[in-house]
Design a protein that fits this description.
Blueprint: H1 2-49, E1 57-62, H2 71-86, E2 89-94, H3 98-110, E3 115-118, H4 124-130, E4 138-142, E5 151-156, H5 159-172, E6 177-182, H6 187-203, E7 208-213, H7 219-231, E8 236-240, H8 245-255, E9 258-260, H9 266-269, E10 276-280, H10 282-294, E11 305-308, E12 315-319, H11 329-332, H12 334-343, H13 352-356
Helix pairs in contact: 2-10, 5-6, 5-12, 7-8
Length: about 375
């Protein structure tokens, strides 16, 4: 009997020891789990606070979807890179019509946004209507000519690359007829069509470039316009109309012809239709421009412009790996031959201001 009581007593002690050990170990585990996230959180806070854009709100207005490859997507991606690098809070809104632009920009200004950026020159005249009412907000446009005390133009010179593409296109043309299709009839878009045409006629003054404007998101319209131009004898088409580019590429594919653009690296996805193209890199330019403004080092010229371009890595000309070896040497050598004269304005390439002043007409060949 005594033996049974002793065994029972020992078992109780063992059970109590197990319970005590378990209870004693719980705070240690809990303390370890708590410390790790706290340390990580502290590090993240320190890193974020170190970024110059902390607490700053930036709004980006784009003319169409940022999902479809094209102008808006490249701009959005560039500004997202700037957000990651600088730490500001970014809002991206699609605003295409004048009413949409005004409504969205005013809402941001009323909400205390520090910077409102319009991804295109078409935003400038609308910003100019009310920017003076929000002196604490800086308004920027990608291209254009509208300026004010707190409204500035981000001026890139990729049209110089488009000029070189026009020169190369003329060397490849067998009919002497080329075309330009753009996604809007405002100076920022018209200057690219003028730049391409100037390159074409620089190579041969007797050549023509027919220009047409389509809705930047209408693939079917772009396809129909491109097909009609091809039927008129155009055998090389420059295009810059965002997601509607797909319709033009389809027409080129169906007719075994070539074209080029001025934004995306289309020579990768369509190596048999795009022998060369201008590729713009907003992942470099938007972070650079926004950093300069946020840190108080914006280099604004007398016109109210912030200028960047080829020498800043903003654009370059790229060739299709499939077609490059098949292109004539006089096409391949165009960039090396003319780049210095183009960049240094020895050969003048149309600007948005030139177009607004009536110095260049994108439609001059349409009725010849």
């Amino acid at each position: 009997m005594k033996l049974n009581r002793m065994i029972a007593f020992v078992m109780v002690l063992m059970f109590a020891a197990v319970l005590f050990a378990g209870c004693a170990s719980e705070p240690v585990a809990e303390e370890t789990t708590t410390e790790t996230p706290a340390a990580e959180g502290a590090t993240a806070t320190e890193d974020t606070a170190a970024l110059p854009g902390e607490g700053i709100k930036v709004g980006l207005l784009v003319p169409d979807s940022i999902v479809d490859p094209g102008w808006s997507q490249t701009g959005a991606n560039g500004m997202k890179t700037a957000e990651a690098n600088l730490g500001f809070k970014l809002s991206i809104v699609e605003a295409a019509t004048n009413d949409e632009i005004k409504t969205e920009a005013l809402a941001m200004a009323e909400d205390g946004y520090d910077y409102i950026v319009g991804h295109g020159g078409q935003y400038g005249p609308i910003f100019a209507e009310f920017c003076a009412d929000y002196p604490d907000t800086i308004f920027l446009t990608q291209g254009g000519t509208s300026v004010a005390d707190n409204l500035h133009v981000i001026s890139e010179d990729s049209t110089r690359g488009v000029f070189l593409c026009g020169l190369m296109a003329a060397k490849m043309s067998k009919t002497g007829m080329t075309a330009a299709i753009i996604g809007g009839e405002y100076s920022q878009m018209l200057k690219t069509a003028c730049g391409f045409r100037e390159g074409v006629v620089y190579n041969n003054p007797d050549y023509k470039c027919i220009t047409s404007v389509v809705a930047s998101g209408d693939v079917n319209e772009a396809y129909e316009v491109a097909t009609a131009m091809i039927q008129q004898g155009c055998d090389f088409i420059f295009f810059d109309c965002n997601s509607a580019n797909a319709g033009i590429i389809k027409a080129l594919q169906e007719n075994g012809l070539y074209g080029c653009g001025s934004t995306d690296p289309m020579q990768i996805d369509y190596p048999n239709q795009i022998p060369f193209t201008v590729v713009t890199d907003y992942s470099n330019s938007y972070p650079s421009v926004m950093e300069k403004f946020i840190t108080g080092n914006a280099d604004i010229d007398d016109r109210g412009y912030i200028v960047y371009g080829y020498n800043d890595g903003q654009w370059d000309i790229f060739f299709s790996d499939t077609l490059k070896d098949k292109l004539p040497e006089d096409v391949l050598s165009v960039k090396d031959t003319y780049i210095d004269d183009v960049i240094n304005d020895v050969i003048h390439v149309p600007t948005a201001a030139d177009v607004e002043a009536g110095l260049y007409d994108a439609f001059v060949d349409n009725n010849k």
